[in-house]
Amino acid sequence: xxxxxxxxxxxxxxxxxxxxxxxxxxxxxxxxxxxxxxxxxxxxxxxxxxxxxxxxxxxxxxxxxxxxxxxxxxxxxxxxxxxxxxxxxxxxxxxxxxxxxxxxxxxxxxxxxxxxxxxxxxxxxxxxxxxxxxxxxxxxxxxxxxxxxxxxxxxxxxxxxxxxxxxxxxxxxxxxxxxxxxxxxxxxxxxxxxxxxxxxxxxxxxxxxxxxxxxxxxxxxxxxxxxxxxxxxxxxxxxxxxxxxxxxxxxxxxxxxxxxxxxxxxxxxxxxxxxxxxxxxxxxxxxxxxxxxxxxxxxxxxxxxxxxxxxxxxxxxxxxxxxxxxxxxxxxxxxxxxxxxxxxxxxxxxxxxxxxxxxxxxxxxxxxxxxxxxxxxxxxxxxxxxxxxxxxxxxxxxxxxxxxxxxxxxxxxxxxxxxxxxxxxxxxxxxxxxxxxxxxxxxxxxxxxxxxxxxxxxxxxxxxxxxxxxxxxxxxxxxxxxxxxxxxxxxxxxxxxxxxxxxxxxxxxxxxxxxxxxxxxxxxxxxxxxxxxxxxxxxxxxxxxxxxxxxxxxxxxxxxxxxxxxxxxxxxxxxxxxxxxxxxxxxxxxxxxxxxxxxxxxxxxxxxxxxxxxxxxxxxxxxxxxxxxxxxxxxxxxxxxxxxxxxxxxxxxxxxxxxxxxxxxxxxxxxxxxxxxxxxxxxxxxxxxxxx
Length: 692
Hints:
six-stranded antiparallel sheet, four-stranded antiparallel sheet, 22% strand, disordered N terminus
């Protein structure tokens, strides 16, 4: 078989096969595109120990990954594309390192091995995937037929050669991985420690003094304190070569006119949808590429505003809208109704710290009296940043989506009534159920996107750029004259993504190539278009004290408050003092937690506190700790009970499961450490700035 299909062929189809079935690493030994070695430096994206990595391969791999994202319905913004480029670059560099190591170790795969992986008793997983017999095996007749056809079909023969090489490289890589993992073992002691970490529970009582409860006026910070802290922690203020970039933005946010345009278009359609005997057929005339057949759609699967409109009155034949929700306008006809398997609710909540029970009850009373709306109370008081801006709106959800105490309160609450405070591991919740649905509606939906006029927005950005350059205006003055706000960002030398700005390679190419004072062309930044100016180039080194003074002051302030609370507890925690006495002397309260775990070292109301949790498990029941300086508070803890996690409680099934998980984790760690060692010992030259 190998003789039949093995010929010198082109590589385009191999590349398609390779990326279709995953993995960049296997390209390294196939000679595809001369990706590793042999390519001129000018066309290389990187050089690894003198071996060039093809820029052409890099671009094609990036585009293939982009296509896969888009096929899965993932929007490839400039930020996402930058992440893809980083992942592909790192993979190609790692592949070059692996290839070099396989050559050093003499790892090869013979034709006989490849043949056995295709036709033998234990076929390669790719063969099982491509030639299934429907019973978990391989359809060998299909393989023989394909090989025979390839004798007269050059294109098919090329594909088979690509498949052969992928299988060869997969086996070669497996041999390398086996060598790296050969020394990895999991001992019985490790399994037992992991079982204890997962299964053992500690019941504790503790007194806590939060650092944040110390008023700023209670601590004094001198210039000497700041300078001393800055000197002792100077490594924390190191920076790479950095550019300061200021920009103005032109949002793509739809205007009222954009919404009105979509709504007016749907209003013209509404009467026709209402009268249609076949709503699906009618919708297909006014919908482009979307499913128009009637379908039962739970409220949780719809934008909240649209779900509210539909489920406020679920009647067959009713037409809803047009409504703007979820970035589009929609008009909907209800064509059927059925009972839902489980009820769903639309709710809002306000999340407060677990220690603020009095404040929660006070806020609830203010809401019930009408002094403040639930939405405004959420915006002003909730610590749940995910939804406080929308008045605590959680949308629609069914059972099983929320933690149990919260879920029980929500599904028992009457619509429109404020309930709580409800305590969960996240804190205290005030809850209001906006609506409840015990039915599912079958709907036909016609939608129109509500989006800004991109051309007009870009024209505005171009006008600003030209106006600023031709008039010779200071960037900030030009922005003020046009009622625009300037924003500054720091961009490091090798940075290729910004956390709060969805910019792509055009932005970073501008930053690297511009001179101080240069303006960019309008650049796409996700939900906005920006015009940027390079304000400053800063060399690598320690940031000057003046630049980080506010950061240093904040860190010193926290350290001082930490010391204040720790000292208060130490003064109260005499050797014979009980927790109640310590609480009374320090101004704290005794709190109780029934089930701390080492696997999740968090404390309700305080978040991650590994020092407290570690101390709790290190104490005997009834024993009390000294003062523990935690992440957010100073603690004194007493362990009241330890349960579970004993070796004789571990079943054979649990032991095997933990052993498998630990082995997998250790292998990953060893692989990562091994690859990092290769990277550290290699001479890697990065040429991305030439292309990106």
